[in-house]
Design goal:
heterotrimer; A mainly alpha; B alpha+beta; C mainly alpha; A: mainly alpha; Four Helix Bundle (Hemerythrin (Met), subunit A); 6 helices; B: alpha+beta; Helix Hairpins; Immunoglobulin-like; Cytochrome Bc1 Complex, Chain D, domain 2; 3 domains; six-stranded mixed beta sheet; 8 helices; 40% helix; 18% strand
Chain lengths: 209, 364, 559
């Protein structure tokens, strides 16, 4: 017995194409709310670690602690532009799909994946500078504890996002989405924007503040 | 099926229930007797009030106790009353229903408003007592209590060494007690003072109180701290001012004697050494393996580290040689370690530190 | 969102029945089966955690006993608390009662995401196995609160503990999310928020807490894990961390957690009292409103667990005042429940006895909570048996009395059998009396100077501890009575039929046990379910209790 959450597709075999518009709309409403609630709870996860960071940071007078320069503002700003750019490209991807332009959709989606990967590589470069040149390790100080844990958690979300977007690419190729029924694309876009919003906070808290 | 008119039986009851006012009178009498009894209690009969501000805290307990009793009687009393007064009785129709009332705005207003007022009153009283606590006098004697696994140590301004297990304070003297820990979180609690503070490593908390009742009392660890948390108890001695003076003088003399005595490693106490280590050595040394450096090497495996079979000065690792390095200090590739004079260490201190370091090597 | 959809294609859609034992009873996506799985698993952990409690009480028969070594004692009390909090109480009241009853009450066919629901359940037994596996490597010893630095020193089982709680936390978060969407979106036509049964309001508020607070705990736990395993400094002051940081992060979840415990029980009481007093719940709107208020306020009071911790003294004041304020919405409920009894025609079923007993024992717990909220008093009470008494009164005397009322109330719906009222009434009186005899003296022990979490104690506490231990053995026995009643009922219990209690919420309008599709036709709802004088406020239930010859009625439109 089941009526939602993927079962309808499984039971009908060919995806959601066979169900009525009204039924699709109803289920879409549930999924949108559920996905939004999931993103809210993910916000709380980041908030908890941000609280820990600010609390620990407040226990010492100078930040970063002596001996550590911290992350590079310029490099971080450039990398942020890359990530925010991928948010824009994802937006255009979704818009292209809605307006029926499949080729453009794939182009924008590909660009998003590329920029997302670029961001992760940039983070990797930042990490190696901190780790090898500045000797700021994860376990070595409360700077490492807060910076690497928070940006690492974010980076993990980006990584999962890249996998998610790749899956969405494959699903589109397989014809899962139509012009009217494309909640999976909407959800992926929401997730990707969420990752951007979190980065706004992290960039401010570690690079500017 | 269902009846149109709500019925609760034969209709001979008042709206509130049979004998409602009789019951209320009975409950009121019970409540008054209980409250009067409570108010007349001297809590120090159950648990002595041995210091200021225990009396203020007991006053708060008494104040809250009055309201707790009153609310409990109202809730328990009327729950039981309604349960009995409005029970289904044989002879009632099987589909009898109760009064089909959903609520009463006026009643609900009052039973929201009055408890709010009561809570505000309790809050105000609590805040007053709280402010009194912030303003408790201290400072005529300032001392420290240090928690460690699993005992208490006490430091006095005129004593160079800490005192273990027995805390002496003079009566009628405002005391400032700074508490902290050298390892995990402990708790400093004397029930007869009604005060407690967690002993947190890396942080100092302050308690202020004035002992008022001569006697001996338990100091209890009130925060779980490991295996022997249940055994972590010390003794508070509230002495007369003369007795305290005498004790302090005696203790001071004993400590000077011990300090003047030649170095006797067999008198070393590992627990005292642990406290000393955290105060004097941990700025530069960890208790981990050799390579876990802060400034100098880690000292956790001095006696049994296969990769460092000798001490830093080349001597074989044994208690006397460890003591020698502490006495003379050391200069090496990692830096300069001060000698005992620079560190302010007595012979007893050195014996305690050596005992502690030896005990570390004995652990896994 | 406030008014349920007038036309729900989803509600019309009935699927073929699942086939095979595995699909039907093991990996089921049916909320009723999942709920029963939660109840059974939760009760199993309850028995285990209860045995751990009896080990504690046996050690405490004497002030210097060697029944358990100090390390063993510390493991036992820590696992008792851990299991009771996360593997008994939360699963029973949310995954158990919430799953079985809530969708029925709102006239839905299932929850919003049934597959997610199944996943939520199947995280539960592995998490429990992971937790109890810690006994093999040295179970956690620093309480269910595991404060660092002592938890950094703890045995390897402490690391397993972190992982087990994170795992079951995912289960809870997903359930919370699932219930929120279900209650927002899947109510029957006409069931506005103010026509929803109060049990549903309670699950709604609880789901919000589950969804938001649990994630914060995962952060704290994963930080502890990272520090223990990789040395990342969050909490160890020797490496720049702060032990108080743990306390803030832990209690930010664990205080709302206690409202997760109690709100569903409040919901059960709000259902049981009207049915057996044969009158509407008194003050419906205020009870609903107060559930949400308690949930919101519950996020703002966590540091009342930290008054002695060394946090900045000025912080004590706002937390004290906010904590005291929670008494007001809670009090509103108590008065409303008493108002429900007034003027009723009260039937002394076991469920009703537990509900009325709840009013007394929960109130005691709530009142001692106010005594703890007052900072100067807490300076004496913190870390003592006074606290142990308080939380057992609100959890046992509150949540568990509600759980027992719920079991006796809804058992007939799930099994189509009545539990024996004779055994039930006996169980009630023994539980009520011995619960008080076990936990009330702990208030006195605490005030007189006995700290908590100790395997040994000073001689003056011996008599009272012995009294408590012996009472606890009898209390444990009363649960044996419950299980005997359950077994007896399954074999000899009278058939219950759809509505043995003459109740009015939707779950009683369909057969016992409900068919896999719940309702042949989703009804429309005209008003709330508490008007005992009036006709049932539902349209469209005519076909529910028909039975086609040869069993297995076929709902119209199924294929």
């Amino acid at each position: 017995m089941a009526v939602a959450g993927g079962t309808l597709e499984h039971e009908h075999g060919a995806g959601h194409h066979e169900m009525s518009d009204a039924l699709y709309e109803e289920i879409r409403g549930h999924r949108l709310l559920g996905f939004t609630l999931f993103l809210i709870s993910d916000c709380i996860l980041f908030s908890a670690f941000i609280f820990a960071y600010l609390y620990l940071r407040n226990t010492i007078d100078h930040w970063p602690p002596p001996g550590i320069e911290g992350p590079n503002l310029l490099f971080g700003a450039l990398n942020s532009v890359v990530l925010f750019g991928s948010g824009a490209t994802m937006h255009y991807a979704l818009e292209s799909w809605k307006h029926g332009n499949t080729k453009l959709f794939y182009r924008w989606l590909g660009l998003t994946l590329f920029l997302g990967l670029w961001f992760l590589l940039g983070q990797g470069y930042e990490y190696s500078d901190l780790y090898y040149r500045q000797h700021a390790t994860w376990a070595g100080s409360i700077f490492g504890a807060s910076f690497f844990t928070l940006t690492g958690l974010h980076g993990f979300h980006v990584f999962v996002g890249l996998i998610y977007l790749s899956v969405v690419w494959l699903q589109t190729r397989a014809g899962v989405y139509t012009r009217q029924r494309f909640f999976g694309l909407t959800a992926a876009t929401l997730y990707w924007h969420f990752v951007d919003v979190i980065w706004v906070f992290l960039f401010f808290l570690f690079y500017i503040f | 099926m269902a009846q149109d008119k709500p019925t609760s039986g034969s209709g001979q009851y008042s709206n509130l229930g049979p004998y409602f006012w009789t019951f209320t009178a009975f409950l009121a009498v019970l409540a008054i007797i209980s409250i009067v009894w409570l108010v007349q209690q001297d809590f120090s009969n159950w648990l002595p009030e041995a210091a200021i501000p225990a009396d203020q805290i007991d006053a708060l307990f008494k104040f809250m106790g009055v309201w707790v009793i009153l609310i409990f009687y109202i809730v328990a009393g009327y729950t039981i009353y309604f349960a009995i007064a409005f029970r289904y009785r044989k002879g009632m129709p099987p589909d009898a229903i109760g009064v089909q009332v959903h609520g009463n705005a006026k009643l609900e207003f009052w039973w929201t408003f009055l408890p709010t007022v009561l809570i505000i009153v309790v809050a105000i009283f609590s805040v007053e007592i709280w402010r009194g606590l912030q303003n408790t006098q201290g400072g005529v004697l300032t001392m420290e209590a240090i928690g460690h696994q699993f005992g208490f140590q006490f430091r006095y301004p005129r004593l160079s060494q800490p005192v273990a297990d027995d805390m002496h304070v003079p009566v009628d003297t405002p005391i400032t007690l700074n508490v902290t820990s050298v390892d995990v979180i402990h708790g400093f609690w004397v029930p007869e003072i009604r005060l407690k503070a967690d002993m947190v490593p890396g942080l100092v908390q302050t308690l202020r109180f004035t002992p008022t009742k001569i006697g001996t009392y338990r100091i209890i660890c009130s925060e779980f701290c490991g295996r022997d948390h249940g055994d972590m108890v010390a003794t508070l001695h509230i002495d007369s001012q003369q007795d305290f003076g005498r004790w302090l003088a005696q203790e001071s003399k004993a400590q000077s004697l011990a300090a003047a005595a030649p170095l006797d490693l067999s008198k070393g106490q590992a627990q005292a050494g642990q406290v000393l280590f955290s105060q004097k050595c941990s700025a530069c040394h960890s208790v981990g393996p050799f390579d876990q450096r802060v400034v100098g090497p880690g000292l956790g495996h001095l006696l049994n580290d296969p990769s460092h079979p000798k001490l830093v000065d080349g001597d074989p690792p044994n208690p006397s040689n460890i003591a020698k390095i502490i006495e003379d200090g050391f200069q090496g590739p990692l830096g300069v370690m001060p000698n005992r004079q620079a560190n302010g260490l007595s012979n007893l201190d050195i014996a305690n530190l050596v005992a502690y370091l030896v005990s570390l090597s004995g652990q896994k | 969102m406030a008014v349920a959809a007038q036309h729900s294609p989803l509600a019309e859609h009935i699927h073929p029945e699942p086939q095979g034992f595995i699909r039907k009873y093991v990996f089921s996506i049916d909320h009723k089966i999942i709920g029963i799985q939660y109840m059974v698993t939760g009760l199993i952990f309850f028995v285990i955690a209860g045995c751990l409690a009896e080990l504690i009480r046996t050690q405490l028969l004497n002030g210097n006993a060697r029944f358990l070594t100090p390390d063993q004692y510390n493991e036992v009390y820590s696992m008792h608390g851990t299991a009771m909090v996360w593997f008994v109480t939360i699963p029973l009241v949310t995954g158990g009662f919430g799953n079985i009853i809530m969708p029925l009450m709102i006239g839905a066919r299932d929850v919003a995401f049934p597959w997610l629901n199944m996943l939520s359940f199947w995280l539960f037994p592995p998490a429990g196995a992971l937790l109890f596996a810690s006994f093999l490597v040295g179970a956690p010893e620093a309480g269910w609160t595991e404060y660092p630095p002592v938890s950094l020193q703890g045995p390897p089982g402490t690391t397993l503990w972190c992982l087990a709680i994170i795992l079951i936390g995912v289960s809870s978060t997903l359930t919370g999310l699932n219930f929120m969407v279900t209650i927002f979106k899947m109510r029957a036509p006409g069931m506005t928020l103010t026509r929803m049964p109060l049990f549903v309001w309670a699950q709604f508020a609880t789901a919000g807490l589950n969804m938001i607070a649990t994630v914060a705990l995962s952060a704290a736990l994963s930080a502890l894990f990272m520090e223990r395993v990789f040395g990342v400094p969050f909490y160890d002051p020797n490496h720049g961390g702060s032990p108080i940081l743990w306390q803030h992060m832990f209690w930010f979840y664990s205080h709302p957690a206690v409202y997760i415990f109690i709100l569903p029980a409040f919901g059960i009481i709000s259902e049981v009292l009207p049915v057996f007093a044969r009158k509407p719940i008194y003050g419906y709107k205020m009870i609903a409103f107060s559930s949400v208020t308690i949930a919101l306020l519950g996020f703002m009071v966590w540091a009342h667990h930290m008054f002695t911790s060394g946090m900045a003294p000025w912080l004590q004041l706002p937390f004290m005042i906010l904590t005291m304020l929670i008494a007001i919405p809670t009090g509103i409920k108590i008065w409303s429940w008493m108002g429900t009894l007034w003027g009723g025609v009260i039937h002394y079923t076991t469920a009703m006895l537990f509900a009325m007993g709840f009013l007394i024992t929960f109130t005691i717990g709530g009142l001692t909570g106010i005594m703890l909220a007052a900072v100067p008093a807490d300076l004496h009470e913190h870390g003592t048996y006074f606290v142990v008494a308080h939380f057992h009164y609100v959890i046992f005397g509150g949540t568990f009395m509600g759980v027992l009322a719920g079991i006796y109330y809804w058992w007939p719906k799930v099994t189509n059998r009545l539990l024996s009222e004779k055994i039930g009434v006996l169980q009630f009186w023994l539980t009520f009396i011995f619960m008080n005899l076990t936990f009330f003296p702990m208030h006195i022990l605490g005030l007189e100077g006995m700290p908590r979490r100790v395997a040994v104690y000073a001689p003056q506490y011996t008599d009272m501890n012995r009294f408590i231990s012996i009472s606890s053995y009898v209390l444990a026995f009363t649960f044996v009575l419950l299980f005997i009643n359950m077994a007896w009922s399954l074999k000899y219990g009278k058939k219950a039929g759809p509505n043995p209690w003459g109740a009015r919420t939707l779950e009683w309008m369909i057969p016992s046990p409900p068919p896999y599709y719940n309702f042949k036709n989703i009804p429309a709802v005209l008003s709330g379910p508490y008007d005992f004088g009036s006709p049932l406020p539902y349209i469209g239930l005519e076909e529910e209790l028909e039975k086609a010859p040869g069993g297995g009625p076929l709902p119209a439109g199924a294929h």
